[in-house]
Structures are given as structure tokens and as C-alpha cells.
Amino acid sequence: MRAPVIGRRQALAGLAAGLLASRVVHAATPTRGGTLTVGLANDAKTYDPIFSVQFTERHVLYLAFNTLVRYGTDFSIQPELADSWTTSADGKRIVFSLHPGVTFQDGTAFDAEAVKWNIDQRMDKVVNSPQRQLLEPIVASVDVIDRLHVAFNLIEPSPVLFSLLGERPGFMVSPTAWKQRGPAFASQPVGTGAFVLKEWVRGSQVVLERNPTYWQTGLPYLDRIVVQDLAGSVIGVQRLMTGEIDFVSELSPTDVRPIEKRTGIVLNPIKGRWYFTQWHVNTAPFDNAKLRQAFAHAIDRDRLNEITMRGQGSVSDGPTPEGLWWYDPALKSYPHDPARAKALLAEAGYPDGFAYDLSTPQVTVFQQVNQLLQEQLAEVGIKVRLQPIANSEWYARVVDGTTNFTPTRWTQRADPDGLLYILFHSKGFANTMKYRNAQVDTLLEQARTVYDMPIRKRLYSEAQQLIVRDLPMVPLIFGAEYAALRANVGGFEWIPDQIPRFRDLWKTAN
Amino acid sequence: MRIGRSIGAAVIAAIAVVALAAPGLAPQDPYRSGVAMLDLPSATHWLGTDDLGRDVLSRMIYGARASLAIGIGAAAVAMLIGVPIGLVAGTMRGRVDLALVALIDLFIALPGLVLALIITVMVGANLRNLIIVLGAVMWPPIARLVRGQALAVREAVFVEAARATGGTQVWIIRHHIWPGVLPVVAAQFSISVSFAIFTSASLSFLGLGIPPPAADWGGMVRAGYDYLAINPWMSLAPGAAVSLTVMGFYVIGTSFK
Questions:
Q1: Model confidence pLDDT, tens digit, residues A258-313
Q2: Rounded mean pLDDT of B152-157?
Q3: Is A402's Cβ below 8 Å from some Cβ in B?
Q4: Rounded CA separation A79/A99 (Å)
Q5: More confidently predicted of A166 and B127
Q6: SS3 for A362-374, per residue?
Q7: Which of residues 296-355 of A touch B (CB under 8 A)?
Q8: What is the DSSP string of A164-190?
Q9: Is any Cβ of chain A less than 8 angstroms from the Cβ of B211?
Q10: Is the Cβ pair A307, B53 closer than 8 Å?
Q11: What is the mean pLDDT of residues A378-391?
Q12: B31, B121, B228: residue with CB nearest A375
């Protein structure tokens, strides 16, 4: 069958329209059966959701498990294991109605007891789940009302809870299997998901097979999903062309150049990964606001986008890309103005120029961004030396503070609190800039306890304005990336968190 | 052999001229980015452009400087360590020799590239460090070779005569042994240069070469690897330059036999 294929121009049009995730229609009618082979630079260390930390673990977790709620393609909160929910008048008690008749892959029932156990487990100090720090400030306790109704009692009203329950804290684990299997659960996980993890050969592949007793009628379509380890996107593109794999993602606009016009391959863009360059904002030399402003004015973000993203990303004026509800078009960062940068550098006390080391992890796009930053900063008298650092060591050094001036990138979260609080609240666990602004703290604390969207939006606008003005980081660009699929694979849609969901895909005959 | 040496010398001389005259020869600024990324060879860019729109030919011309500096510098460091150790071991014999031979064997047992990798990770990659690190891993074969030559020379009648007439070890080494081993050292120097260029290219390929944006051939081969399907010249051209230079020095080195 001939599948309608999205061309590059359409893809670009989608990006230009500011859509975060574009819907692409190809292999149109769902078909049962077949094996989907996915290529992935897999960094998984465990498939036990309670202990999951690594980015790509979730590619498999979303297959073997269901979350309590699900994200839509616009980050809206949709029902999944919970059919519906009600919030009390004071906003501090949320009751979830669970989908009836759901069983775990080990045959045990999924019910309110299981939900309570899952949340208790994550909040237990002894278990020491990395998700405790996310739930502890929000959840006071979980009550079982009856078999299909479970109540979350909150410390304060929390719109953030829903986004958490669509992510790692929301993956529902079989309590029976978790207790029985112990550490082996990491490689033999049991959830309610559409696929059962059959085999995990580290460094090689993960094999998942259709769950014959899956609770969503008619799903899944595929019989089997194989996640093959990839050493890099070049190899991924090659394997896709030869048909060894059906899907590969995290491709840069340059990576897809050889397959842009190839028949039988469909490209599906996703925009929004946020790139910025950060420093320790409260210690010398970067505690000097004029110095930071000089850097910001010296950087030509348009050119960064033009060269590293072939113009397909967009300039970042702040943490939020267009298309998310907390995006504020009025927010503007410091414009490219080399003359102003030079003047500010002199005012900052560096009339003869300034020199500093810029950490350069061995990641192609960071190396490209850094070389361009070096070139642009040199034009105003800022001499930047690129300090190479192994990618494996880099983030640990950013966290322990031995790395100061460095580029960073984050994918978007379903709730503004997800990124803004962890990065910019003085107590945020990813605030490696050591940024402290009491006003920002208050705004972020307020915003995480308000259900009213217009009020939340206003609070986040104010917070982002302060953050962008203070320059604990210089916003650079929002990246553009691609998933590339064989044209006979259908049903793929991006969710703006950039974790591909394979669960509901299908594959037609070639 | 003579012809080989002439060809090798001509190649190296040509590359040396390119390195010295780089600013005059390079058609464009090798560090200037542009929005025409990964273009194929054209009239403006004879070898096309790289992933940041920089002129590949200009970067290759500048890259000759880094490669020659590393090759010759590292070989010199290796000689400075290896030759004295070899001379002393070969001339003194006895316990000193035993100890030095044990040391040489210990270092020869460690694979050079792996050792260079580990040390580079520890000290950090830059031009000076690479020269020292590569010199430090290349000295043992030189020391062993020099020791072997020295052993042969020290048994010669004229050396025995010098010893009998009361010549000191240092005097003997300087006036009899050193001239005897000099041709071998010269040959080995040339081979060491080629090994150093080759190894530094390997280190660059593994991300431990001279940090960007410096133009160096090994780093260029690595950077181009991701884009072989778009502009293969980004890798092939500097790769060919490495091969040519390594071959040039190697041919000179082997011609001394």
C-alpha cells in the first residue's frame, strides 16, 4: 500500500507553526501482528520504575507498565489506569476512580491497595527511591476508599501531582512480584502494561512480547518489540535505510540529511529541548551582573540555531518554547548587540577583555555550540578556552560544582513546575547555578499550589521574567530533533517530553 | 632505498612548507564558521565545508602544523628519554643493565595507545601534554634498540683499547658508542615521528586530541565520521594527509637500513 509521506517542507511548516509535536499520518489503518525493531542509544540501568533515573529507561517502562494518568500530545492530562478523578473543595484531597478489571502481568489484581503500596513504597525512606524528593513535598498520605477508589491526601493543593503520576512516580508496579523477585525485578519487571519484558541483554537488546491479557480492548497491535542498542545516530540511520530497524529517534537536523528525500522513510520532528549555558551566579567572577549581560549580548542565538539546527530549532528567550501553555511571548532575553556587550564588559571591570574555561562534553551538539560561542564571544573580547570533558563525568561535575561555565540541555516536562522549580528554586535539586532569588522562590512556591490556570500562568510569567533578567544562565535555543520511521509503521505521535511511546504503534506489510 | 628516501624527504619537505606557510596558503580563515554546512567541494571550498560551515581545505592546511609539531616533538621527547637509558644500559652491563632492562621490558609490556589514553585522561589534552605523553610511551623501544647497538659496539677492539688505556665510561660513551649508534637513532627518530602522528590521530579520533576548535587531522577525521554520507571529504582528506605524512617519515626511517 502507498502511504502518504510527510515531506521536509511539511515538516518545516509544522515546526514553523510552532507546534511542539506534529501529527503525521502514514500507514493509515491499524494492523495486528508483527515485530517492531527500535534502535536506541540505551543507557538503562534498571527497569524497576521505583528506582529509575536514566532517560531511556522510560522508553521500555511505558511498554511494560501503565501510569495512573497519561499525557496527551499537548501535555494535557488524560485517563489511563485512573478513569476519572475528583478534587475536594480545599484542593487537598484527590480521589481517583480506577479502571475496573485490570490485572498485573503476574495475574494479581490492580486495585486501590496496589496504588497505595506503589506510592508508599516510593515515599519510604528505607526503600530510598529517587522519586521520594518529588512526592514528599506534595503527598501526605494515600487512603484506600474501596477496591476501585483511592484518595491522595495532599499537604497543599497541588496541580503538579497529575504530571508526576503520568511519569516515573505513576508507573504501577505489581506489589506481589516486586516483593517476590527482589533485585531481579530490575530485569524482570511486572506491570499492567501492554508488553511483557522477556529478555534484557545489556549492551545488546531488550525483547518485549505482547501481553495476551492486556486490559485495553484490541491493544496492542504489535506482537513483539525489540529495542536494539545503537552506538550512534549514524549507525541508526544506516540500519533504518537497510530495514534492519523500523524506528530511530534523537536524530539532529543534520543526521536526517541523507534520508530526507528517501522513499519508504518518514520523518517526524519534535522541537523543544532547551539549550542554555550556565554558570555559578553567586560567586566570582559570574556574580557580576554586567559581566553576565556582556556575555548575553555577545551571543548570536539566531546563528546558533542556523548552524547547529539548520535553522529548524528556534531562538530561546527563556525556559519555555512556544506551544506550551506557560509560554509567554512577551518574555525577551538580551538581544545580540556586540557593541553593547563590549561596553558592558568594560563597565564590569574588564576593559581589556575577559578569559574563562568553558566545559565541553564529548557530545557533538555541545561541541558545535561551544565552538560557535567561542567565536562569537571572541568578537567582543571574551576569550573562552574549550575544556574537553568525558560525557560520563560531565554531569556529576556540574552537580558537585567543579564545573562552572558549561552548556546544558533539558527536555520539557508536562508541568511548568517540573523544570522551573528544580532548576531555579533555591532548593531545586538541579539548581547547579546556585541561583537564589527570594521573589522567584515565592512565585514558584505559590504557583505549585494553585489549580487556577490563568493565575498559574501569570505567576510563571513573572518568575520567568525575573529568571531571564537575572541571567543565572543564558538561554540559547530550542533544539529540533527527528524520529525516523519506516513508512509501514503507523500510529506514532510525539509527546513533548521527547520520550517516544511505542505501545500503540502498528506495522503494515511493506 | 635512495629513491625511497628522496621521495619521503620530498613529501615531508612539502608538508613542512605547507605548515610554515599556512596563513599564506589557506584560502580562508580555518576558524570562521558559516551557514553553508557540509557542502560538497566547490569552486569556493575545494574540499567542501565542515559541520560548522568552515573551509575543510584551510583547516587541513593549518592541521599540518599540529601534526608535525606533535610528531617531531614527541619523537624528540622519546629520544631524550630512550637514548641515554639505552646507552647507559648497553655500556655499563651488570646490575645497572639488569635494572634498566627490567624497566624497559615493563614499559614495553604495556600497550602504547592504551597507556597514552590513560595518561591523557589524567593530565588533560592539549598540544604540550600530547607531546609529552606520546614521548613518554614511545621511549622503551628506542632504549632497547640503542642498548642492543651499544652492546655490539662496546665489544669492538677500539672500545676495549680505550677502556684498557683508562677511558672513563662517559668518555667512551661519548666518543665511541654514541657515534656507533647514531645511524640507528636517526632511522628510529623518523619512524617514531610517524608513530606519534599516527597515535595522536587515534587519540583525536577517540576524543582525546587537541581540543576544538584547533584544526588537527585526527580530530577532523573524527568530526567527519558522523557526516560521511553528506560530505565524505571532511574525513577522507585529513585521513589521506595523515597517511601521507606517516608514510613519508616511515620511508625515510627504513631507508637507513
A1: 999 999 999 999 999 999 999 999 999 999 999 999 999 999 999 999 999 999 99
A2: 85
A3: no
A4: 9
A5: A166
A6: CCHHHHHHHHHHH
A7: 303, 306-307, 310
A8: HTTSGGGBPP-HHHHHHHGGGGGTS--
A9: yes
A10: yes
A11: 91
A12: B31
- Interchain pair A237, B212: CB under 8 A: no
Contact yes or no for A364 and B125 at CB 8 A: no
Q: What pLDDT, on the 0 to 100 scale, is given for residue B257? A: 61
Lowest-pLDDT range of A176-180, A278-282, B52-56, B112-116: B112-116
Q: CA A3 from chain center: how many Å?
A: 30
**DSSP assignment, residue A26?**
-
Report B:120-139 residues touching A (Cβ under 8 A).
121, 124-125
Residues 6 or more apart in contact with residue A397 via CB below 8 angstroms: A359, A389, A403
Mean pLDDT of A5-31: 51
Question: Which among A25, A60, A62 has a CA at the least distance from the CA of A45?
Answer: A60
CB distance B229–A234 less than 8 Å? yes
Query: With an 8 Å Cβ cutoff, are B212 and A364 in contact?
Result: no
Q: Kindly report, residue by residue over A167-204, the tens digit of the pLDDT.
A: 999 999 999 999 999 999 999 999 999 999 999 999 99
Which chain B positions have a beta carbon within 8 Å of A261's beta carbon? none
In this complex, is the C-beta atom of B38 within 8 Å of any C-beta atom belonging to chain A? yes
Which pLDDT score is estimated for A347? 97
pLDDT for A385: 92
The cell for A17 is 507553526
Q: Which of B90, B29, B67 is nearest to B203 (CA)?
A: B67
Q: Does B230 touch chain A (CB under 8 A)?
A: yes
- Cα–Cα distance between A181 and B56 in angstroms, integer? 57
